[in-house]
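Figure S4 source data
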Amino acid sequence: MGPPPSSMLRALALAALLALAPADRARASWMEPPPPYRPKDFAILWYQGFYHIFYTRIDTSLPETATTRDLGHAVSSDLYYWEQLDPILTVDPARWDNAHVWAPSVVIENGVFHLYYTGVSSRAGSYSSRERIGLATSTDLLNWTRTSAPVFACDLVPWAYCDSLDAGTAFRDPFVMQDPGDPRRRLVYYSANPASDPGTMVVGVAESDGDWTAWSDLGPLWISHLASTGSNVAESPHLFDHNGLWYLFLTVNGSEPLAWATGPDPLGGPSSWTYRGRLSELLGYSTAAWFASEHVRNGSYDYLAFLNGQRIEIKRMMWRADGGFDLADPNGFRITGMGWSAPEVGHGDSVTLTIRSSWWMGRSAAIRLLRVIPDGTEEPLSMEAMGMASSIPLTGDTTFYRWRAVVPPGGGVISYADADLIVRLEDGTAETPKLRVDPPPPPPEAGWAQDPSEDGLILLRPRPRRAPGAPVEFLVELQLAGEVRLELFDLQGRRLRTLAERRMPAGATVIDWNGRDAAGRRARPGIYFARLRTQWGTRVARAVLEP
């Protein structure tokens, strides 16, 4: 095996760095860059145990025209301690976005992150602040590759005011999400000036069908316009759903900048939306210093993040029965990740569940065990029947829980030959990768002997021992070349070792067993069983290990 990829090394280094976070963390949950920087529009996401914030980075020691020339990046495992990483997307005089980069929005698809942002162009003699939307991609959230040209601009929107010579023309603040009505599509919400009233702003919407560099106009979201909000500003839009209702947040002007609206459809017309007013009216206290909000969900927890002066604050949303909410400081306790000591084990083998956590003292992890059925659906399993505790006390930054793996019985009329299992926290904030649990071979009384000519495609049989002390040999015959797996079990159905797992040619192949288990220990003399698994079926053969 070669060295781990650089992305893995960076992730391990990041985890180690965050593990050294000081115990006396900030008393409130916020991310504040070191001087002379302060944040502006930002994106926040949760991915594999870490929160990431990408933000417009303002250098307060420079004039406004000379800053916001890269995006800051900060990470946290608990929303309290934040580590600043290298900034990304630095402007380049030779690129189209050569003046500023603003307002990131990040989505992930098939392991690739897509970061949309506002790129501002300056061209001598033509324009000084032309706003368009660009795209960068990454597989590790650290290294980003930008497209060579904008992916969306106001000249593609017939209803938008579009004058590249007018420095006041807005086409910025993209927010990108999956279309809930069609998972093959994406939607982008952004701030623009309507041509019918260019002195105001409105949130526009566009869609993309698979090609994330090509967008088609869907019109303005008029609930965000002056006629509804009483404000000629509509910036930093973002949407999220809760209990079937969609929430639109945006930044407006006035003494209380955060406004919101709700509706049953994120693409609904004006009559389907209800303007709910300013956030301060809901909360019952002033939010005058808050603007440019964002939402992030982790399992069953919803968080509202927003700019407040020099920092980005994060509050947990405490939902009310009427669809409103209160805000509270997040709980610093987090399960930041879970995993298995091995990706695959046999029925009856021991495997270790690892649980990584922060602020863990006196806490437990409430978990569920689920089987992933071949069609992708999940089936909850009885923790008692599976021999797994439903609540595991945490003992450190990493807690180790040893479990003897069990293949659960098939459900209903379905019979499962083996099982893919996952452990998930009760609140849904973390889960393990899949654990494959291979079943034991049939018990001896079920008939180990099989007719090797049953289908003519595969055959497995032991060969007579050539001499005392010689290895036990198994003859494998395939009519066609293919992938095979040959495993060895004792009479109790416990897997001793895997003798072969590879592609074999058509014809006969002899595989030796030296009488030792997977750990290299000498097996006791007696009867053992080999199981051959192929794409054409399974064969089992008995062999005797002599003293």
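Figure S5 source data
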Amino acid sequence: MPDDRSPTRRPRPRRSLALVAVAVFAATLTPATPAVATATPAGLVWGACPPPAEGSGGDTRQQCATLQLPLDYRHPHGRQIDVTISRIATAEPGLRRGILLSNPGGPGDFGLDMPSFLAAALPAEVLTRYDLIGFDPRGVGASTPITCGITDPVAVTDLILPYPAPDGSIARNIEFARTTARDCAAHSGELLPHITTANTARDMDRIRAALGEPKLSYLGYSYGTYLGAVYTSLFPDRSDRIILDSAVDPNRIWNGVFRQWSPSVALRFPDFTGWAAARNDEYGLGATPAAMAETYFATAAALDREPLVTPGIVVTGNVYRQITRVLLDDDRNFPLLAAFWQALAQASPPAALPALRRAAPTAQIPADNGAAVLYAIVCGDVAWSRDVDRYARNVAVDRRLFPITAGMPANLWPCAFWPNRPLEPPVAVTGKGPRNVLILQNLRDPVTGWPGAFGLRRALDRRATMVTQDAGGHGVFPIRSGRCAADIATAFLTTGTLPDRDRFCPGPSPDDIAVTSAARPIPSGPLAVR
């Protein structure tokens, strides 16, 4: 069995990806600050967490501790890095089963505040059985952060995710990718090659061991599904109950995952246009979904020609496209998105835009930390093609087939010029291991589309059961799950029961959404692998 010493051979204060839409990834989850540090038998010293994100709440029970872990697991006694973890212990130790480790996605998202989020959102019967454990993954936030030296990420918001020019040219993307790859190596040097999914999974197993647990249960969202699949493939006998929510295909890492954004957004888009068309008296954006789509394309084209200058950001056509893409991840964003479209269709500064700007990072966390980790992971997990002409051809095809996303998902990343090749092949995700994985997926997820979840289901084979929910948006349990999906996930975490076959569930009712609305969606990076 592989272990953490030998890589397997075979994808504001404390926020993530620096896009203008990044604050749409709010709610940011907040750590608490207990007054007294305490030690555990494992030697961890628990105390105050880093300062919380501005304006966010947190659970006063949440504590943090820092582990020293190997930078390079091939040399476990060499250089060490910090990985900061958090916990909220169960209030009923007599019912405790173990630990529930969580990851919000990304790559590049902060995870320390996940216990606070989950403590407010998970059913009581789950909370009694687990200590909730979060962590900032290696390279992120409070865990020895890395940087690529991008001092003003908002200024290059349409380049961090590679939107081509309005005429389809990728010359600007090539220049940015080449420069960024060079700068990432210059600023993060020795750290950069070791910020990978496989190493983060090995860190998770060290967290398990430090907490004195024989196994860990896990709840991972978006990119966190790939991380969880890698963990349970590396350490199948140390995996207890694994939920992978809004899933990534492990056999399409990473360019293939990103290209799937185009059809996934196209499938999701009518949910919003239909909603807004039914409210045309309020928003005036079009009385039919087709008219709404015409408004979108006309507004984007107008902003391509003449961007709108607002305090803090210039709204180009690509910024408009990106904010739209991000806000599609939750039906509860639809009123904000409609107001945003309405203001821009009238060529006036949108009143909602200040809410979309992220708070400045702390002095200890580089402004581009989320973007730097995003690049480190997607470029370090697997080698990308260096054929620039191939990306140009793919962009041209996607622009014709999927104009909503304007060719961005097919474009090149800094990975095409990455200075070092991956240190190891991607971990093989297979059906070898216990049957202990539940995959949850919305049918019309614009970020990690249904085909990606099916790809993960196929890779895990007999190990997994997949539950598809007839809903749009990104994230299921306990973010916007209907009773059917929520009951299956709750039963799995509390009793270990998996359905004997894959299931199709109705989406959430208005009552279900009201129950979960207080706990806003998990923060997310570009996949939200944002």
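Residues 1-39, 354-360, 526-530 have pLDDT under 50 and may be disordered. The domain at 20-147+190-256+425-516 is CATH 3.40.50.1820 (Rossmann fold).
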